[in-house]
Amino acid sequence: MIVFYAVILWLTGAVCAYHDYVNNTLEPAARQLLDFKLEHPKPVGILSTMAGKPVDIRETTTLNNDGLTSNEFFLDDVMHSVAERIPERVVHAKGTGAFGYFEVTHDVSKYTKADVFNGIGKRTPVAVRLSTGLGSKGGNDLAKEIKGFTIKFYTNEGNLDLLGLNVPVYLYTDPSMFTPFVHAFKRNPRTNLFDLTAQWDILTLKPILLHGIFWLYSDYGSPNGYRKMDGFPIHTYELSNKNGDRYYAKFNFRTEQGLENLTTAEAVAISGQDLDYGTRDLYNNIALKNYPSWRIEMDVMTSHDITNVDYNPFDVTRLWKNGTYHTIQIGRLVLDRNPDNFFEAVELSAYNPGNLVPGINSPPDTIFKSRRLAYRDTQNYRLGVNHKRINVNAPKYRKTYNRDGVPSVNENMKDVPNYYPNSFNGPVPFIDESRPNERIIVFDSNAVDLESSSNFYKYILVDEGQKQRFIDNLVLSLVPVVPEVREKALKLLKLVDLELGIRVRAGVTAARARIRDESLMTIHH
């Protein structure tokens, strides 16, 4: 309840540290239009058509004139407004974003030659997008979903995109699971409602999903806004230094605001007041110069370590075992600038796990191979084949033989030869003499392994309060499930952990008994 009342105070302006106005009772997000007026005391220019023709005030109405067909201002408006939406993302559709910088604080040249991570004090501009996993654009920031945490580093060697989640594991290892999982966890094609029976049905048929879903049903599924959650690019990346030595690393982004999660009751209470809680919180704190930051570190194994552990370190559904790696600090990520235009900077942004730089090489797991194909395809569909020429996606440097297609094409490489190889001084490749000449091959297993799910309940949930809230959330999700699927789910939970299975079954039985008694009382009255 403390969190709930704090949010109400914030929303009503009772808590405010913004002193640019005599009347400072509004939060920065609510004052954006007034900010603009104060920064521009006069109109910013003469209104024009899309073609640049100045608009006469009589052309701003179509009443009592022939403006329907001859008024270019009206035609611009009406024909643009019906076409100004682009397809929303299939997953992570609702999100927010900000700009900032990454600063190197530790020497990691032993592990990677990547320019972005070398040179203590070096700063690299970044764009960050934070998002909910499965909801639509108009959804709830605090819905119990896995959250997205993606960073684009504008490095001197090209863009580096690290795509992560607020939890350290992914959901499955087989790329063919993407469509069934998304369909089951999105809306039922007939009812257009989220369907818990479909969700638990696929969980019982594909138990590999359980570990990731367990994180979702715990307190970790409801971070207190985007500033107070960690970020985890889920893959094990191959690193190489200037001598060609190889290392393997998982990157971690640890919030410096303090990791903070909400209970289900707190999330529900806040959502009743503000579906955009995370978006508003991030915007306001940056506007108030309370810049959010994260400590960037990496868990590292050597080439020898990686082939001598008793588990698959490339399995994106499991955690690395304690004692098999060491953690290295790299630097800090700071967000210090809100976008001037959300559509241009966030909606048009495109993050692709295939965007890597020398010294940070492709992870060998099958999920990564699939993602680098799927992300490229979905961005071509959503934004067009030239999406990497859009300002927010454009690298510092680009010389390419790709051109033409749907705008924007910008300078379109002007008169440079448009084929490679050529004899006329078009762009040429370079030779990376320190690039490793060996690659590791990973063979995945289809065997059902419940160890990670069991360890989550036993060791990740560190106290009884976390365990009880986790169990309560599981119970709530199972009560409306059809009996056949619910029984399979309860048996599966018992296989994961005997105590967990017993406690969830007892909770479901008690909950259904209460529903039955309330129904009988209603009928009686």
UniProtKB/TrEMBL annotation:
Signal is among the record's keywords = yes
Q: Name one GO molecular function term.
A: catalase activity
Q: What cellular-component terms does GO give this entry? A: mitochondrion; peroxisome
Q: Which InterPro entries match?
A: Catalase, Catalase_clade1/3, Catalase_core, Catalase_immune_responsive, Catalase_sf
Q: Which UniProt keywords are listed?
A: Heme, Hydrogen peroxide, Iron, Metal-binding, Oxidoreductase, Peroxidase, Signal
Which PANTHER family does this chain map to? CATALASE
Q: Please provide an example of a Pfam family that matches this protein in its UniProt record.
A: Catalase-rel
- Organism's domain of life? Eukaryota
Name the encoding gene, please.
LOC113517341
Q: What is this protein called?
A: Catalase-like
Q: List the source organism.
A: Galleria mellonella (Greater wax moth)
Q: Needs which cofactor? A: heme
Domain named Catalase core is located at 48-428
Alphabetical GO biological process terms: hydrogen peroxide catabolic process; response to hydrogen peroxide
In the record, the note on similarity to other proteins reads: Belongs to the catalase family.
What are the boundaries of the signal sequence?
A: 1-17
Binding locations of heme: Y375
Is the Heme keyword given for this protein? yes
